[in-house]
Structures are given as structure tokens and as C-alpha cells.
Amino acid sequence: MSPNNDSIFTQELSRRTALKALFGAASAAVLFGLPARAHAAEASQETADKLNAAQAQLDEVQAQLDSIANEYAALANKNAQTLNDIENVQGKIDDTQAQIDEKKAELKKKRNDLSDRVAASYKSGGTNILSLLLASGSFEELVANAHYVEKINKSDRDAIEDIQTIQAELDAQKTELEAQKANLEKLKDQQTAQMQDMQAKQQEVQTVLNGLSDDVKELMAQRDSEILAAAQAEEAARKAAAAAAAANKNNSYSGGSSSGGGSYAPGTPQQNAGSGKQQAVVNACYSTPSPGQNWCAAWVTNVFRNAGVGYFGGNACDMFNAWCYSSDRSALQVGMIVADSSHSGTGAPGLIYGHVGIYVGGGIVMSNEGAITSKSLDSFISFYGTGSGVRWGWLGGIALS
Asked: Is 224 helix (H, G, I), strand (E, B) or coil?
């Protein structure tokens, strides 16, 4: 689920404080002892429809943003490959240039050797090459002597020609590699421009998404206010009925009536023996509304804050990594968080952030899935344990038992 952001919920503190006051430990034990009546407190159908429509539009725009993100990621991968290709070609250019430099040095040495040999022959006098040419008495003799000189230096000339040929080939190879690099640089610039365009488009969609998110939050606030008003009316009616019963000396609201004869749903506060803090967390699970789709960690944070245990931020993945240490069912206790760090069942949010809920006893885990749901531990593990697996532990390391 999405990361928790405390600032998003600051504006709702007064409403949630009222909810906490209404559903305190004493009144919650009475009010939520009757599930049918507790669940009667609902928002108007008009508000629910508007919220559902806004949420659907939000999901649609989020899907567009996810699509852009996926396209951007694919293009970024191609750009990374282009950069690798440029680096590889540059390496080949450098190697070729090194070979060219080597052949140039070899060619220079061959020419110097030949020059040194001619100079030495000139200095030695006698029948050296220069003397031989200067001593030619006729053109025919000069040609003959020149042919003789050519034969003497043929091996040097052949070596020089071989080096020149290799150098020419290397120059051509370098020119081709530089052309390849230029094309890759052009491709890199095109990809960079495309990525910048996609970033701009991503920002536009994100702006629309932020506006829709604000609309959804406002509608959730309206829904919560309506639920609060309905719950207050219900509580007032209950108190009036209790007062009337007391006046008639009919103690109908005794331990027998609150027990419900086994009619309670598993995991309701009446079935969770334990410390006061454990009971407070369970009560808060039933009184704390959903902060919205994909905000499972935010709901858990609000529950523990409403229960007076403390504030613990972070997303589901953070909570899992920091506090969920066991998968031993015998170690699972009421008030523990139950979480995973990654699962595939809910798409990208689940893969990135995981999911977190709270064990309320009776084999039941409550969590925010857009609405507050109650799942058996087996069902919770079956759905959310497909990736990292499900574990549990005390949130913040604070043992409530």
C-alpha cells in the first residue's frame, strides 16, 4: 500500500478526536457489542456514490501515470544500452588510435634506419651507394646503378610500404568507428529528449492526480462526518432506550444481553481477553475509519494513535521490516500488526509497499483495503503471503500484553 504521510491527516484530527471520544473504551464495548446496530452508522448514498466515482477517476488517472512510468522505464533502459554502446565504441576507437600510433612510430624508425644507413655509407667512402651514383659516367650507367641501389633497399622499402598499408587500414577503421559513435550520440540525444518529454507529461498527469486525490480526501471527510453524525444519533437513541428501561426497573442491558448468546462476530472487543492496551487497540480498530484506498499503513497508524499507544509512521513495508519478526502462530497476540513487504495481488502498490493489518483475536485480521475489512488469518496469509510472506510482531516494539 501507499506510504503514510502524517500531514494528510492533520486536518482530520478534530473529527477523529470526536470519533475516539464517542467510541471510547466503555461506550465502544457497548456500541460495538451489537454489530447490526454498529454497522447501521453509514454515510448517505449520494456521498458514497460521489466518493466511488471520484475514486474510480483517481484510479484511471493513476493507471495513466503508471503507464507513463513504465514507458519511461523502458526508454531509460534503452538509453542506458545506448550509453554502453557509445562507451564500447569509444574503447575501440582508443584501441585503434593506439595501434595507429604504434605503426607511426614503427614507420618513423624504419625511415630513420634507412637514412642512417645512407649517411653511414656516404661517410665511409669507397663503393658506397652515393659514390656509386655520383660516379656514373653516363645516363645508362646511372640507371644501372640506380637499379642496383633499389635492389639494395628493397627490403626497407617493402617494410615501409607494409607499415603504410596497415596505417591506412587503421585510419579507415577509426573513421568508421567515429561515424558509429556519432550516430550513437545522435540516438542518445533523441532518447534524452523523449525522456524529458515524458517527464513533462508525467508531471502534468501527476498534477491532475493530486487534484483528484484532494477531491477524494474531501469526500472521505464528508463521509466520515456523516458516519459520525449517524453514530452519534444511534448512541443517543441507545442511551434513551437504556434510560427508559431503567425507569421501568428492567435491567435489560446486563452481562447476558451484551454477550449476545454467541451472536458476536469473531474478533469483536468482547472476545479479546488481555491487557487494557490490547483492548484499546481492538476498540480503535472498529472505530477508526478508512483513510482511503491504498492507505493501509495510515489506518494502522491512526488506530494506534487513537488507542493512545503512540504514533508510528512509515508504510507497510517499513513496518514489516522493522517490527514483524515471527510467523509462529503460537506467538501471535491480540494487538500485533500482521504484514508483508511485497505481494502481487494488488498490482504495483502491493509489489512496492506490501500490506499491513492488525490481529484483533478470534483468528481475525482487520485491515484497510479501501474499506475496513475483517479476514481470517488463513485468508489474509493466502492472499498477502504470495510474495515476501506474512509475519507479525508488536508495532514500535511495544508489547501490549
From this structure: helix
Identify the DSSP state of 369.
Answer: S
The C-alpha torsion from 145 through 151 and 152 to 158, rounded to 10°, is 140
The whole-angstrom separation of Cα 206 and Cα 365 is 34
The whole-chain average pLDDT of the chain stands at 74
3-state secondary structure of 341: coil
**pLDDT tens-digit profile of 305-332?**
999 999 988 888 889 988 998 889 999 9
Burial letters 293-312, b for 16+ CB under 10 A, else e: bbbbbbbbbbbbbbbebeeb
What is the Cα–Cα distance from 19 to 39, expressed in whole angstroms?
14
Contact 118, 185 (CB under 8 A): no
| 336 band by pLDDT with thresholds 50, 70 and 90 | very high
- How would DSSP label each residue in 122-171? HHH-SS-HHHHHHT--SHHHHHHHHHHHHHHTHHHHHHHHHHHHHHHHHH
Please give the sequence-ordered ranges of beta strands (E in DSSP) within 86-126, or none if there are none: none
State which H helix or E strand residue 357 sits in: strand 355-361
Q: And the C-alpha cell for 107? A: 614507420
DSSP 226-286: HHHHHHHHHHHHHHHHHHHHHHTT---SSHHHHHGGG-SPTT-GGG--S-HHHHHHHHHHH
Cα 380 to Cα 50: distance, rounded to the nearest angstrom: 30
Q: How many CB atoms lie within 10 A of CB 91?
A: 11
Beta strand 364-368 with 372-376 is antiparallel
Angle, CA 120 vertex, CA 115 and CA 125 arms, to 5°: 135
